[in-house]
Specification:
By secondary structure, this protein is of the alpha+beta class. It has ten helices and four strands; from the N terminus they run αααβαββαβααααα. The longest helix is centred in the last third of the chain and has 49 residues. The chain is elongated. The relative contact order is 0.13. The model has no long low-confidence stretch (mean pLDDT 83).
């Protein structure tokens, strides 16, 4: 670690340990994902999400028992939370009711009337209701994933063309591998913090794509410049370039992370769920982006290029013998 901040850290030499760490972390998160499962928002899987404001004391089980008995809703999930009134600091209590059933207007009215009468002491009032067909939710998710895939392909092409003098498409592919690492970690943030996958997931993915790639391009730029100046093997050029850009990327990471972490803290204090579901995974993604841009992408690209050069040299030697 001392060498890291002194500017003489051997990135390429230690890359296998860094990749082992990244792989181990992803494996642990995958196991936890299998245990905890993935929560998906109504926007993606379809169904009905109804929110009612209430007063006094109320338990989730009481609402579940009533709805299961009188309405027989499928895959029923009830959670209690707090919300802040628009334009003021006043907070109020909410019942969040989700079901995979796609309720129509009349069914929603019956549901609201039934809850209001059964829990009259709690003075229920309807806050919001969203009902989406399952086919629409799946189609929306598919379109979002297609948008992410197109963005990824464009980024590979961009990096390949911009750095064609130092390897071209291998540079783009390795940048994409690092991005996949970042997006995987961001996804696990949704799982581990029990945040449902919603439209904010797509926003996080696209934002991380841009942020992480920016740090990678900074290093590739320095590698390209140093390769013209230094008469040294690619491994040494890469280590020099990474050490020269480390503080710049570190400062960018710290300022970005602090800004997003501040937003996450404020959103948590004010109970702003829509912002929390973006800020927390984004903060985790920024950490992953800094790690991959600094420790994973370039060393992996160097290993690829060295292996390709070794094969080329071996082929030339065998051709020369003939």
């Amino acid at each position: 670690m001392k060498d890291l901040f002194k500017g003489n850290f051997a990135y390429v030499k230690n890359s296998k340990y860094l990749w082992m760490f990244a792989g181990g972390l992803i494996l642990i998160c995958l196991i936890l994902n299998l245990i905890l499962g993935t929560s998906v928002d109504v926007a993606f899987k379809g169904g009905t999400l109804a929110k009612f404001a209430y007063e006094g004391d109320l338990t989730e089980q009481a609402v579940v028992d009533y709805l299961s008995k009188d309405f027989k809703l499928n895959a029923l999930d009830v959670q209690l939370s707090e919300a802040t009134a628009s334009g003021s600091d006043e907070k109020y209590q909410l019942i969040n009711i989700y079901t995979t059933d796609e309720l129509g207007t009349d069914e929603v009215t019956k549901l609201a009337d039934g809850l209001t009468k059964n829990f009259a002491a709690n003075k229920l009032t309807q806050d919001s209701i969203n009902s989406i067909q399952s086919t629409m939710g799946k189609m929306f998710f598919l379109k979002c994933m297609v948008a992410v895939a197109i963005a990824a392909v464009v980024l590979i092409i961009y990096v390949g063309l911009r750095f064609r003098k130092i390897g071209g498409w291998p540079a783009g592919v390795m940048a994409m591998v690092a991005l996949l690492h970042d997006l995987t970690i961001a996804y696990f943030a949704f799982v581990l913090f029990r945040i449902p996958l919603n439209d904010n997931f797509v926003a996080v993915v696209l934002t991380i794509l841009g942020y992480s790639l920016n740090g990678t391009i900074v290093v590739y730029d320095r590698v390209r410049a140093n390769r013209r100046k230094l008469r040294a093997p690619l491994t040494e050029v890469a280590n020099v370039s990474l050490n020269e850009t480390f503080k710049r990327n570190l400062n960018t990471f710290i300022t970005t992370f602090l800004a997003i972490a501040t937003v996450a803290v404020v959103a948590f204090v004010e109970n702003l769920d829509a912002i929390i579901s973006f800020a927390i995974p984004m903060a985790v993604g920024v950490v992953a982006g800094f790690f991959s841009s600094t420790f994973l992408c370039i060393p992996a690209w160097v290993a690829w290029m060295n292996k390709r050069e070794a094969k080329k040299a071996a082929k030339e030697r065998s051709g020369g013998k003939k």
